[in-house]
Design goal:
By secondary structure, the protein is mainly alpha-helical. It contains 9 helices and 4 strands. The relative contact order is 0.10.
Length: about 160
């Protein structure tokens, strides 16, 4: 049921909890940002984790899909269209809510979702993810997106310092 490296030595039908735990810890925001949580409360996939899980599922279900995916990946490395990404962000519900209600209407979880992070993401990683969005706004030259991100940064500044509301 489990890959060989997860077997408990001498009891191949059971997983080795230590190895599984190490694998789960590597999925947390500090390392790969694929999942948030802990052993006691459980783990939840981040948006990035969901994307990778779906891609892995499709790769495992069809060898042809693996070949097609690797070709697409090579083509996508050539350029990143920041204008397109900026437009996609401005179509999100969080931006629409920002326009109609201002930054006060935005919830913390919506902010985490926007920057592809979770409540347990370390402040330095939050700064990195936020900085990536700011670069997109700058390269796209979109003042609306820049103003939106600045307002969110101001509202959720405590998250970047490791605090809570």
């Amino acid at each position: 049921m489990f890959p060989k490296k997860f077997f408990l030595v001498g009891f191949e039908q059971y997983p080795d909890a230590t190895r599984v735990n190490r694998a789960l810890l590597q999925c947390r925001p500090k390392y790969q940002n694929l999942a948030v949580g802990d052993v006691k409360k459980g783990f939840i996939l981040t948006k990035l984790g969901e994307v990778r899980a779906k891609r892995t599922e499709s790769l495992l279900s069809s060898p042809k899909a693996a070949f097609a995916t690797s070709k697409k990946r090579d083509e996508s490395k050539r350029t990143i269209d920041n204008y397109k990404i900026a437009e996609q962000i401005l179509k999100l519900n969080i931006y629409k809510k920002f326009v109609s209600e201002g930054p006060g209407g935005i919830q913390e979880i919506e902010f985490y979702d926007l920057i592809k992070a979770g409540p347990y993401t370390p402040p330095d990683k939050l700064k990195e993810y936020y900085s990536d969005l700011k670069k997109i706004a700058a390269e796209a030259g979109d003042k609306r997106l820049d103003d939106f991100l600045n307002a969110l940064r101001e509202k959720f500044d405590y998250l970047f310092k490791g605090g809570v509301a």
